[in-house]
Amino acid sequence: MKWFFRITIFLLLIPVQTLLLEKIQIAGVKPDLALILVYCFSWARGEIHGLLWGVALGGLVDLFSIGLLGVNFILKTTTGLAIGILGRSFLNLSLLWNVLIFFFISLLHDFLGTLLVEGMREGGLFLLAQPDMVGRALYNSLFAVGLLFLFSKRSGEKGSFDHAGVLFSAGGNTRSTE
What we know:
By secondary structure, this protein is mostly helical. The protein has a domain at 31-154. 66% of the residues lie in helices and 0% in strands. Helix 2 (33-45) packs parallel to helix 4 and helix 2 (33-45) packs parallel to helix 6 (131-154). The longest helix has 24 residues, at 95-118. It is a multi-pass membrane protein.
């Protein structure tokens, strides 16, 4: 059943991203479903799953994109690994904190992607920060709220966001290292 679920997500990502989410874009901004899924899987399952989902979904997005090949692969793989590592203890926080962290991860993802594609032009870093980055980060965060909530209810490993406003939790992660 797990493999069927994984293959279904892998096969439906591009059609959902390009067809369905195209219809619900706001002000020309649509969410990055691959980034949302990589974040949620990394948060729920750890760095190995995050790394693998980042490789799979980043590579898939790069395969079907018309941009520079490898940018999504690098960014989503790095995001999956970093969030998986941080998910051991630091991201075992309230839903609000996870959404705020995801907002900044999404901003950083778009900024680094633009930096890799556009490079340093004569205008400097300030011209790389485009207004739609904040809109996409907000939109991504709205989608991530629902998925993080579902992951927290489905996964007994992370609990139910009981740490409310605590920035650092002493509990850490209860996952086994098997």
